[in-house]
Amino acid sequence: MEPLFTIVMPVFNGSRYLREAVESVRAQTAGDWELIALDDGSSDASPAILAEFAAADARIHVETQANRGVAAARNRGLELARGRYVTFLDQDDMMHPRALARFAAAFAATSIDAVSARAVDFLSSEGARRFCAAETADSGVSVSESPVRDVLHPAPDSMGVRASVWARAYLRESIAGIKFPDGVYGADDWVFTMRVMAGIKRHATLDDVVYLHRSHPDNISAAMPMRYILAMLGAVETVAEEWCDAPGGPHVPRAEFANALASHVHLWGIMLPCLRRRTQEERRALAAALSRLRRKGLMPFTSAGHAMRCFFVRFGLAALVPILWRKRFRSMAKARANHAEEVG
What we know:
By secondary structure, the chain is α/β, with parallel strands linked by helices. It has 16 helices and 9 strands. It has helices at residues 15-26, 46-56, 70-80, 99-109, 125-133, 147-152, 188-199, 220-223, 226-245, 254-260, 262-271, 280-295, 304-309, 312-315, 320-324, 326-343, and strands at residues 5-11, 33-39, 60-64, 85-88, 94-95, 114-122, 141-144, 168-171, 203-214. Strands 1, 2, 3, 4, 5, 6, 7, 8 and 9 form a 9-stranded mixed β-sheet that branches. Helix 1 packs parallel to helix 2. The protein starts with a strand and ends with a helix.
């Protein structure tokens, strides 16, 4: 008999928090589920931990593959999924005990393709357990028939469409054929989310916390390497091609897409790079990525408001100019030098 839910969990050297993640699935008040754990070539105790859980609970299925990355693991999980609905869990996070029950109620009450709920960050396992044990009231479900518009023009009082794939459940048949992109280092979930929103008809939001995201130094979002930042900027180009230009896509005007994603580009291209000291090579790679976005019409002119909020202001506005307008900056400098030679 097919389960109601499939939870897909990619695993790579996740032994530190893996038990808590799996136990949070086993603690679900709705028991009609299967957990597909994809071990992506772990070299720590993760395979042994997963084998132990699989032996104790027939609802847990483990597949091992050579290391191919989180996107390939998630895609394989979608291929193996048998549930009517699919959701995702990261190896270091936890699900609220009523997560699947709340998702099931939303699907039962409305005719939707996907439902998004809220997530909360936590630092300690004890804090997460206290949060899960607290009594919470169920909220209503808000349904939209324009998922693309929800991304581009979210309502002021809405929670918008989060880039991550967790804290969201999908009708499996509605996302058939949609894949996570390989080789984008951390940006695969954002591209997948955008592909889903472009491909479905009805999307619901649930104002309940169903997912607990663990904050720790090993998170890619905490480390913020330049490779991750460049991948997120590259993902903007990928999604723009699919949303604006591709046959069968939503055919969003490029200017509208660029304006809607302006804060995203400014965040990843300007603000976040300044949180860490960057090498000259990294700065050059960032400048090239931003120049490419500007050439493709995907980086609108930085407003004074954005500039005042960006971290570059803290380090000197002069640092902002040569990166955003590198070619213009160089051509002006060259013109001044030529003028000086002529005058001399």
